[in-house]
Amino acid sequence: MSEHLLNIAQDYGSPVYVYDTSTIIKQYNRLTDAFSSVNKLKLNYAVKALSNISILKLFNSLGSGLDTVSIQEVQLGLKAGFDPEDIIYTPNGVSLEEIETVAQLGVQINIDNLSILEQFGTKHQDIPVCIRINPHVMAGGNTNISVGHIDSKFGISIHQIPLLLRIVENTQMNINGIHMHTGSDILDIDVFLYASEILFETAKHFKDLEFVDFGSGFKVPYKAGDIETNIEELGKKLSNRFNAFCKDYGKELTLAFEPGKFLVSEAGVFLAKVNVVKQTTSTVFAQIDSGFNHLIRPMLYGSQHEIINISNPTGRERFYSVVGYICETDTFANNRRINEIKEGDILCFKNAGAYCFTMASNYNSRYRPAEVLIHNGEAKLIRKRETFDDILQNQIEITL
Where does the Orn/DAP/Arg decarboxylase 2 C-terminal domain lie (predicted)? Predict the structure, then answer.
């Protein structure tokens, strides 16, 4: 595999993102298998994780739906061939006008605040709406990705259920789904199941539900021996509870998830070339041709990406701090054991499929990299590297 990646770096330049469809398909099947005892299962891929249209087309071919958070992601999904009814739109803090525009496209609306719920329900009683509940359960590996706690901006508080029910009764709006999302990098299955019980209790208030959406946030391993969410155990326990709930509810509902990172993180790697090996009084820096403009997660979330020197995979291990070329501190790894690095070597960052390219920027007026997809062993370019023309494309020069 290292040789294949080296060829990709040579053919398409560095830095470059590379994704493997076989890993995506494996993860998708792993999740569907874990919940095989549920009659109606719907996986809505979270577009924000990796939004390249070729990736979306792959998920469409697998039978996935889409979880979207902006009208632009909805439009991407439609462009990729998804039917509107297979897209759920879960924004936060957007205008009523955007929600109405998306609703006109036939997409499932998911509303997470009482103000917009009342306004939308008053004007559009016949349009089905899902409600996002905040269960006040803290879950997630970092405060920036824990969204179900009591002081979160996401969701309608379970303590506001009486007011929520009054709005629904007064507007006579159609509530067809209940949703929650507690956070990302969830490890404790019992915490997830506890939050699910809160969602089940809330669902009892609504008589015409079609689905219950449990969000996602499943943790993937970031290094050898790393812990991850036990999807198989969760699938068994939650499936049994969901089937029992449906029996009590008197109707077979759809169990929905919105996985993003779980499906694409391990499928992606990021390749970057070492420009300089710099020795200081106490540290050896490997300085690469990239920075947090291309891979911000270590700086933003403290995430750890395993780094392999694919140019020298069997070399003697030494300690390096891997840093970028941005004119600020952008450290990918501190004092990390990596096979001996020389200038010109290609480093491979694992788990670069989720929230890497989608969070990339033109900071320092640097170009965003190319994206390459490996499908059936063949590398295909799915996004060109940006050029100087792309930097200037929407700028307007004026006479001063």
Answer: 17-353
297 is an annotated ligand-binding site residue:
yes
CA neighbor of 218 nearest in space, from 278, 263, 272: 263
Burial zone of 115 (CB within 10 Å; 0-12 exposed, 13-18 middle, 19+ buried): exposed
- Domain extent for 322: 2-17+268-352+356-386
392, containing H or E segment: helix 388-392
- Whether residue 398 is contained in a domain is answered as no
Q: How far apart are the first and last CA of the chain?
A: 54
Q: Does residue 381 fall inside a structural domain?
A: yes
Is residue 249 a known part of a binding site? no
pLDDT of residue 227: 86
Q: Give the pLDDT of residue 184.
A: 62
| 268 among annotated binding-site residues | no
Nearest to 370 by CA among 351, 390, 350: 390
Convert the pLDDT of each residue in 9-35 to its tens digit.
999 999 999 999 999 999 999 999 999
The total of structural domains in the chain comes to: 2
CATH of the domain at 330: 2.40.37.10
Q: For 52-71, what is each residue's pLDDT tens digit?
A: 999 999 999 999 999 999 99
328 known member of a binding site: yes
Q: How far is Cα 86 from Cα 64, in angstroms, rounded to an integer?
A: 8
Shared domain check, 200 and 51 = yes
What the block records as the tokens of 356 is 């890497």
Q: Tell me which residues of the chain have a pLDDT lower than 50.
A: 139-149
Indicate if 320 and 284 belong to the same structural domain.
Answer: yes
Answer whether 260's CB lies under 8 Å from 338's CB.
no
Residue positions annotated with a catalytic role? 327
